[in-house]
Amino acid sequence: MEYVELNLPKESDKSFVVFKEVGKFFPCPWHYHPEYELVLVVNSTGRRMVGDNIGYFREGDLVLLGPLLPHLWSNDARFINGKSNSLAEAIVIHFKENFLGEHLFEIPEMESFKNFLKMSNRGIVIKGTAKTKINSLMEKMPDMNGLQRLSSLFSIFDVLSETTEYELLASPGFVKEVNLNGSDRLNKVINYIMQNFDQDISLSKVASTANMSLTAFCNFFKENYRLTFVEYLNTVRVGHACKLLFDKDRNVVDVAYECGYNSLANFNKQFRKYKNMTPTEYRKVLYNRND
């Protein structure tokens, strides 16, 4: 399965795009683009693919996507086959980081939102009261005039900058980009993981990279990532495996070894733990294969 780059339409008299997607089903292929994208599903159900994450969407689903992140909203069969009693509908916002000038996100007032936006390279599902507030704003935006739309967009930015009600989708191993606002110590650790996850990484070696004792490092890592070091390492490895599995001619055993697993059994165990399916099942989902 190959990613398709889409050139998204933009009106010359508008700095960003808001539109309704309405039809029997959502038509876009597995694709990416340089714009940020905020997607609200107004009506429809189906499978949502963001990077290596495979989930499901329904009415009210709200997701923020970063630039160049591959994604696909695939409707359930009843929509695709024309057997649904209603149309598939979504409201979509597209904007670029420089949509109001090169220095917009450098002003102090945008600092919190800029930090939140950095996480969108993995895709973010917005939940709870934040989702409720943003959905209410987005539902009205297609009928607004220019300044009203812009004001609503900044209201959305404000909600996102304050919320803790979200879930990251694609794993760090799939994205393989590190944008941290944390300490140099954290940066060194994560960069070390990204450069060496395909090798046999020892906990003591990583702790020494952070210049910390083993116990102090384990506590430090868990406090910052809400995962143990081993759990984080496995999310990176499994995420990278998902990227390799897009090549349907690549042998699963080779994928396991390329991601740092010396045992196919352990690879399958860890993959199922984080993706709720085996590598072979994951590949079949990607290609809609039943064989």
Please specify the SSE layout and strand pairing.
Elements: E1 4-5, E2 17-23, E3 31-32, E4 36-43, E5 46-50, E6 53-57, E7 62-65, E8 71-75, H1 77-80, E9 88-95, H2 111-118, E10 124-126, H3 128-140, H4 146-162, E11 166-168, H5 172-175, H6 184-196, H7 203-209, H8 214-225, H9 229-245, H10 252-258, H11 264-275, H12 279-287
Parallel strand pairs: 1-3
Antiparallel strand pairs: 2-9, 4-7, 4-9, 5-6, 5-8, 7-10, 10-11
Helix pairs in contact: 2-4, 3-4, 7-8
Description of the molecule:
The chain is an alpha+beta fold and 291 residues long. It folds into two domains: 165 residues, Jelly Rolls (Sandwich); 115 residues, Orthogonal Bundle (Arc Repressor Mutant, subunit A). Helix content is 42%, strand content 18%. It contains twelve helices and eleven strands. The strands form three sheets. The chain has a six-stranded antiparallel beta sheet, with helices on one face. It has a three-stranded antiparallel beta sheet with strand order 6-5-8. A two-stranded parallel sheet has the order 1-3. Strand 5 and strand 6 form a beta hairpin. The longest helix is centred in the middle third of the chain and has 17 residues. About 2% of the residues have low confidence.
